[in-house]
Amino acid sequence: MFLRKRALARIANEKVLYQRHRGGDISVCVAYPNVYRLGMANLGFQAVYHIFESTRRVDADRAFIPDPDERAAIRAGSAQLVSFERGRPLTDFEIIAFSISFETDYLNVLTMLRMAGIPLRRCDRAGRNYPLIIAGGSAVFLNPEPIADFIDLFLIGEGEEMVPEFLAAYERERSRTGFPASVSSVQSRLEALTQVGGAYLPDYFQPEVNESGQIRTVTYSGPGEARVKRRMIHDLDRFTTASLILTEESVFGDMYLVEASRGCQWGCRFCAAGFMYRPIRYRSPQKLISEATRGLSERKVIGLVGAEMASVPGVADIAAAVADGGGRLSPSSLKADCISPQLAAALRRNGNRSVTVAPEAGSERMRKVINKNLSEPQILEATSMLAGEGIENLKLYFMVGLPEEHDEDVLEIARLTGRIIERARAQKNSIGRVTVSLNPFVPKPWTPFQWDPMEAPQSIKRKVAMLRAELGRLGGSMIDLDAESPRDAYFQTLVSRGDRRVGAILERLSAAGYEEAGPIWQELRRIKHDAAGGSTLPDPDFFVTRHYAHDEILPWDFIDHHIHKWFLLSERKKAHYEHQTKPCDVTRCTVCGAC
Ligand code: SF4
To answer: Model confidence over 187-218: pLDDT tens digits?
Structure first.
């Protein structure tokens, strides 16, 4: 019973900032496939839970993957996975709605279903009285295919309009076919739900592969077009996306979070957020100031969330308003050349001692390859401004293993870091800590680098060691190198670029109880070995370290993100020639198809 005790203690520590509605006849469990402290830090999960909970006929609850000690108890049979608020078995619900922001959490979706006693595969649930399993969130609108065999229906795109439309359609069909539904009415209900824009019924799409393992064709058996249009909201001001339930235990427990924008105007070629959310949309400064001011009555730190925060219109005014209110604005990431003297001063006034800047690549050449539109003089100018305003600690984001990268480009990360430190010292005499945060490049669907492989983990390891040695030569103990494991990146690439066959790999990992990166890697090597010996599971390398052909059908091609594939390919070619593309001008440009 310690699971319930912990959940009840957590509920007692939450502050809900809206009027709750309880007691509808359609029970929905909104599931976040990771632990409570991460789920409650996720604005998308909070927003979708709020939509379900605010719907008159819905009785909503939440579920998270249990903490590691709780999972051990569930496996040992001394506890079971139940919903967070009411402690109900998940099989009691009419609908389980997964909100999935990160593709690495796909494995946890399977683990949660398993712990709930629900058969993983859709075909094993058919005709039996299990909840309808639906899924949405940014991971599934990039590529839902690795979990397509486990989910009844996906909602592809932004949820603010789509989820209420789904619920209205569900209510209509439920009234028409009755509840509980018969086997045939479940199917007709599902088919009716595909009328909702953005709904994706995986049963309608059957991919077939050729002898090389590439997708040869996708047979579509549904009505209308074999494309699923990604939903989006045109005017963000119509909706508030901000903290709705506060808890100290969340990873951002000291912050009130406000979403400032969706998408990004800069078009960095590796970045999924810059393409999947096109076109860039901002909330108005008035709306953001009003949300931030409201947040100040709850928390002293306002977290401004979005892909790039220095370009948000009026960001210096928002920082000033937060400072006037006695708080501190914490922007998620700043593009160096967009940091104005006013913004640097406002951040200083806010009491910020640390700022994150993302050069992403060390050399000018690589920043052109990735279309960063950012020069070294601009990075150093931003350093001067921030150090001059008294910012002490810098976090610098870089990537390693990018397409077209040479060893010399990796060494340039250390040299640029050295020049940043010199510039900061010239301005301020002393500098606090500099953290070099290094992430292996993970190719993402819907980006110009979607066809590129991830560099082999061994090669990434060698580059990281080389960089560590070069940073060591800079001297001083003020530099920390924080490098993400290439093995974790390998798994992330597998679930980012995989097709439905990856579902069987996830199933094997979940059945064996794998959750942590290290053991997963060993099991993936075993799967690779078995694949070479003729096992039915695919070789994970096929999805991770293989160049996808430019004319190949990609697993996610059936989604319509309003972006021309030829545009992504032309961006890939420009990367090869180190040509940059200007940032988006949504007032006149129509080139990629999103505007
Ligand atoms: S059409 Fe032009 S402005 Fe609009 S998202 Fe595409 S590149 Fe950016």
So the answer is: 888 889 999 999 999 999 999 999 999 999 99
**What is the 266 CA–ligand 1 centroid distance (Å)?**
10
CA 575 to chain centre: 24
Ligand 1 atom 5: residue of nearest CA: 279
Identify the helix (H) or strand (E) that includes residue 75: helix 68-75
Q: Considering the entire predicted model, what is its pTM?
A: 0.95
What is the Å distance from ligand 1's center to 131 Cα? 41
- For atom 4 of ligand 1, the residue with the nearest CA is 595
405-426 burial string, b = 16+ CB within 10 Å, else e? Answer: beeebbbbbbbbbbebbebbee
Q: Contact 3/68 with Cβ under 8 angstroms?
A: no
Residue 384 has pLDDT above 90, yes or no: no
Is 279 close to ligand 1, i.e. is its CB under 6 Å away? yes
| d(C-alpha 337, C-alpha 359), whole Å | 10
What pLDDT band is residue 72 in, cutting at 50, 70 and 90?
confident
DSSP conformation class of 305 = E
Biggest alpha carbon distance in the chain?
Answer: 75
Percent of the chain surpassing pLDDT 70: 98
Q: Is the CB of 585 under 6 A from ligand 1?
A: yes
- Whether residue 386 contacts residue 334, with contact meaning beta carbons closer than 8 Å, is answered with no
Residue whose CB lies within 8 A of the most ligand 1 atoms, among 580, 584, 585, 587, for a mutation test: 584
Q: What is the C-alpha separation between 261 and 384, in angstroms, rounded? A: 27
- The angle that helices 486-497 and 502-511 make with each other, rounded to 10 degrees, is 130
Q: Cα(267)–Cα(447) distance, rounded to whole angstroms?
A: 9
d(CA 165, ligand 1 centre) in Å: 28
- Measured from the CB, is residue 95 less than 6 Å from ligand 1? no
Please give the distance, rounded to the nearest whole angstrom, from the Cα atom of residue 401 to the centre of ligand 1. Answer: 27
Q: Measured between alpha carbons, how far is 466 from 404 in angstroms, rounded to an integer? A: 18
Neighbours of 204 (CB within 10 A): 18
Chain CA centroid to CA 398, Å: 18
Looking at residue 517, what is its pLDDT? 55
Q: 81-93: buried (b, 16+ CB within 10 Å) or exposed (e) per residue?
A: bbbbbeeeebeeb
Q: What tokens appear for 297 in the block?
A: 């009555």
Mean pLDDT across the stretch 375-387? 89
pLDDT in tens, 466-487: 999 999 888 666 889 999 999 9
| Ligand 1 pocket test, candidate residues 269, 565, 570, 586, most atoms within 8 A of CB | 586
Pocket test for ligand 1, best of 264, 563, 591 (most atoms within 8 A of CB): 591
Ligand 1 mean position, distance from CA 581 (Å): 11
